[in-house]
Amino acid sequence: MTGRFGRFLVGLPPYAWLALFFLVPFLIVLKISLSEPSAGAPPYLPLWEWDEAGNLAFHFNPANYGMLFGDDLYLSAYLNSIRIAGISTLACLALGYPAAYAIARAPLAWRQSLLLLVALPFWTSFLIRVYAWIGILKTEGMLNAVLLWAGVISEPLQILQTDLAVIIGMTYSYLPFMVLPLYATLEKMDLTLLEAAADLGCRPFKAFLAVTLPLSMPGVIAGSLLVFIPAVGEYVIPDLLGGPDTLMIGKVLWAEFFDNRDWPVASAVAIAMLVLLVAPIMIIQNARTKAEEKAEGRTGR
Amino acid sequence: MASQPAFAPWTDPQAKPLIRFEAVSKRFGDFTAVDRVSLSIHKGEIFSLLGASGCGKTTLLRMLAGFETPSEGRIFIDGIDITNVPPYERPVNMMFQSYALFPHMTVEGNIAFGLKQDRLPKDVIAERTRAVLDLVQMGKFANRKPHQLSGGQRQRVALARALAKEPKVLLLDEPLGALDKKLREATQLELVNIQDRVGVTFVMVTHDQEEAMTMSSRIGVMNAGGIQQVGTPIDIYEYPESRFVADFIGAANMFEARVAGDRDGRLVVHCPELAHDLTIDHAAPLAAGTPVTVMVRPEKVAITRDMPAEGLNWAEGVVSDIAYLGDVSIFHVRLASGHKIEALQTNRRHTDEQKLTWDDKVYLGWHPANALVLTK
Questions:
Q1: pLDDT tens track for A135-161
Q2: Residues 6+ apart with CB under 8 A from A30
Q3: Alpha-carbon gap: B145 to the closest alpha carbon of chain A (Å)
Q4: What is the pTM of this model?
Q5: Predicted confidence (pLDDT) per residue in B318-329, tens digit
Q6: Residue numbers in B near A201 (CB within 8 A)
Q7: ipTM
Q8: Residue contact B113–A210, C-beta within 8 A
Q9: What DSSP character marks residue A22?
Q10: Contact by Cβ (8 Å): A118, A179
Q11: Which CATH number characterizes residue A86's domain?
Q12: How many domains does chain A have?
């Protein structure tokens, strides 16, 4: 009994924290998304109120959600966000997998230092690091200077203020989130499995495809989700590196909240993003965890 | 079995060994794991490399599998130098100590894996997979994943996977190490039966003497990177060539002694710890004064209350310890010199009228044929 109670106590603070600062705000946003906009402060009408006769009156306004489907802007912002986040995730995977593999197979004495290098960018502010990319990507920036000097191009490229710049910025920013879970799965892999594959006549590259890659799928999925989910809603990177026509849902949200001061529509955009993206991903993740627990439960005992 | 000619190709000088190590050494940095080992293993053998951990037996096996490259020396299989052939091109398969089954594949997938590498037709793969699964009696479990199997079942799958490619040599790294004692004993004999049926040469690494003795056609006893002695289980146990092997295999009573001379074609040695000189059969002639070790196995020592009427080798002492093991009892007898001798007695009856107990005065005796002189 005390053990159970102790576990409950230990679990309480994080859950209380999440309930207070995630669940409650989420419910507030949900509430706002269903209310009518108004010119006052706050810029929306209450969802329910007591009229003079003492009756409870509701003012639902589902039109905010209807608007999301009515206006192309929102749909194309969603799709473009998914596209950019998807490409960035693939780029992170392409760069992060070899890096994680190399670290996991490096001599034990080196691994900690190499991992530290992966995490090193976190020691500088995210904002400053994204700003630094402006200096690299702009027309008269370092990247163009190097490419011109090397003779690869004859005229500076317009990279900044394009989707490409956003993808580069996201890939750079989220790469550690890909490398760390991949490293964790690759590092704990039993290397005698590769010896067994070789013993059974499998060449090293084929053994990678047949054994290492499938066994690292949990890391691939975890890393991809860690990159993809925040990338979809990313605001700072498209705002700083993207152009005026870089349409992403984070920017639309910002515009609705602060430029249009249409809180109900902005809230509806936020809720729709959550439902469309995060909910299916969470369901998949949950199913995977359960399957893994089942598998481990059988071997463990 | 008795009517069949004994299987002993190693005694035939014309026979060509299947596996040959020629002065193979392996160094890791400053550490020499395997030190100039030369060894021949014949087709159809179950050859065990036996030794304590760190003696180099696993490194030797891994060099045969191709996971390690010798620092010096050559390795031949069927007359072909395979020293630098990568593991995926060698005609050998290994059963790993941890089994190393692919966790993301079914039992069937694991077994078919090696066959698929050879690009065999699908129906051949299916047929062979089925055949080896039946061989190890795992046919019912073809669609299970490794984590859904017990340790003994995984061991069978690992064996089936290694046999599926019909290798010239099957390597077994502590094949039964992960099984509990009862299952291990049953599996030992089953492995031998399977080997008999498929006719594949087994090379096995083990630290378990009983396992090596039960299963092997020959045993190579290893110590500190070198092979100490190669021989049949009987050779190794009854005729060890060195103090190390005598001491390592089974229990042994050892006496430090000096050669006193020859009498009636038998060697007579003087041992300061014993009151009487010892007489030993079958000894090569040795010059008087040569220091030797005399070895007698405990089960060859007779223990009696009365002084032996006639006997060449005897000693008297006091029972200081009795280890009762159920089937046998081991008596530790302290001599006047303080030296202890172990004698083993089979407990043939429920009770023994003459039951020996602590502090009883007893006589120990053994036949000259049952002692051995060791000079190494």
A1: 999 988 899 999 999 988 888 889 899
A2: A267, A271
A3: 9
A4: 0.82
A5: 999 999 888 898
A6: 88-89, 114, 117-118, 165
A7: 0.84
A8: yes
A9: I
A10: yes
A11: 1.10.3720.10
A12: 1
